[in-house]
Amino acid sequence: MTPLSQLLPGQFGKLASLNPERGVDQRLMALGLLPGMVLKLIRKAPLGDPLAIEFGGQVVSLRLAEAENLIVDVSADCPIQRPRQP
Amino acid sequence: MSTPDAGLLVALVGNPNTGKSTLFNALTGLRQRVGNYPGVTVARKSGTCDLGDGQKVELVDLPGLYSLAAASPDEQVVIDALSGNIAGDRRPDAVVLVVDSTNLLRNLFLASQVAELGRPVVIVLNQADVAKEQGLRIDTELLSRRLGGVPVVMSSAWKGEGILDVRRGIARAITQQTQMKRVTWPTNIATALVDVATSAAADTGKPISEAEAQRLLFDTNPSTADRLGWTLAQREKTLRTARDRVRNSGYNPMAAEPLVHYAHLRLILEGVVTEGAGKAGRSAAVDRLLLHRFLGPVLFLGIMLGFFGSVFWLAKFPMEWIQSGVDWTKAIVAPQLDAYPMLQSLLADGIIGGVGAFLVFLPQILILFLFIGILEDSGYMARAAFIMDRLFSWCGLNGKSFVPLLSGFACAIPSLLSTRTIEDPKARLATAFVVPFMSCSARFPVYALMCSAFIFPTYGAGWQSVAMIGMHCVGLFFAVPTAFVLTRLVLKVKPQPFVLELPRYQMPKPRDVIWRMWQNAAEFVSKAGTVIFAITIIVWALSYFPRDPSVAERIKASNPTSTEEVLKAKVQATYVEQSYMGRFGKAVQPIFDPLGFDWKITVGVLASFPAREVIVSTLGVTYSVGEGAEADSQHLRKAMQDAKWSEGPRAGTPIFSLAAVLALMVFFALCSQCGPTIATLAQETGGWKWAAGSFVYMTALAWLAGTAVYQVVIRLT
Ligand SMILES: Nc1nc2c(ncn2[C@@H]2O[C@H](COP(=O)(O)OP(=O)(O)OP(=O)(O)O)[C@@H](O)[C@H]2O)c(=O)[nH]1
Ligand SMILES: [Mg+2]
Question: Which of B195, B306, B447, B652 has its Cα between 20 and 30 A from that of B376?
Answer without folding.
Answer: B447
